[in-house]
Predict the 3D structure of the following.
Amino acid sequence: MFGLQELLLNVLFLIIFLLFIPVILELNFSKLSQQNKTVIFNLSTVLAIICCLLNPIKIVDGYIFDLRLAALTFGGLYGGIRSIVILGVVTITSRALLGGLGAFATVIVVTILALLLIFTTKKFNHSSGKKKVLLATLVSSFASVLAISNSTLFFGQSIQPAFIFIYILITITITALLIYLYEVFQGSILLNKQLIKIEKMEVVSHLASSVSHEVRNPLTVTRGFLQLMLHSDLSASKREEYLKISIDEIDRANDIIKDYLTFAKPTPENVTVLNIKEELQRILHVITPLANMNGVEVETKFSEFYAKGNQQYFQQCLLNIVKNCIEAMPNAGKLTLELKSEKKNLIIVISDNGEGMSKEQLARLGEPYFTTKGKDGTGLGMMVSMKIIDSMGGKLNVNSELNVGTNFYITLPSVK
Ligand code: ADP
Ligand code: MG
């Protein structure tokens, strides 16, 4: 069998440089500018051409065959006119450096192929996936027939018919297959991106409706009291009372908006070093009435540790978790708060012995609008908490068992 090993090597180069690298590029480097992407794409195709050239399938002295035309076709069709010129020049020069009669043949073949590519690239890039494969098949059929007839007719090479057949077949198949796979990968990457975008849009629209819903209540109340104040027969003390209520309600609306904006902002402002022990004590102070109401006993074990964060956000984060714990123990129970350290981190453990969560519920924890509390729940608390922990460079681990209880482990990088 003629150079099967070289042939497989050629195919491998094409897969690495034409499929693998461009797909990785698309997947992981979305921040790269289009211009840089094009440069890398061209460079990758150049490498494919050179690697193919350096591992040729020799048939007669001075004459080599390889899959460089497949790479040239692929790179030219996707890359456009500039890529075609670059790739054409690279192919001709590198082939010329290797010497032999075939170098002249290459000049002719590559020039004609480049012209054909220049005429097809625009149409190619505006076509659907199927049409692209078809166009590429046509172009590569032309290229391989051209290469073979050029060397037999003008350069008088006698090449076995079997080889001619195999060469043409392989060039066409590989080119079509590469384009097909590239389209499939690109398609799924695009789909994935669109899905993420749709998901984000959905979160935003849900958020918008929640905000307007929750802000409307205090606004309605405020409006009612302001309207009452229009009556002139109101006593001064009543007037003052109504004003106070109005101001309170406006403050509440403001707070709600601020809370919802927590996850719109990537990094919170006003980051300071927080005394975590004090922060926990402050939370305890806030939730004691609620705990008493539910007959929940609170146990604490604090050591002194510090971490960086925005105090208001951090309070919100702890409050959401602790409130969930108390709500999970409607008929008495025990809430435990512990602050300890592990290596360079501090760990806050918040535990309850309440109703717990099933595996499915646990998996959905933190998903926007996931709540088991019906009308009483918003399903936003855990999402906000997780986002805040994340912004502090921390991690949240949760384990839970139905009817046994839930443990929250907040790990944060501790500072001196
Ligand atoms: P909400 O409290 O408004 O329902 P959260 O995002 O705070 O929204 O919590 C989402 C859901 O996670 C809750 O409805 C509840 O089912 C579950 N959950 C959270 N914390 C606990 C806990 N400590 N014990 C049991 N279930 C919990
Ligand atoms: Mg909650």
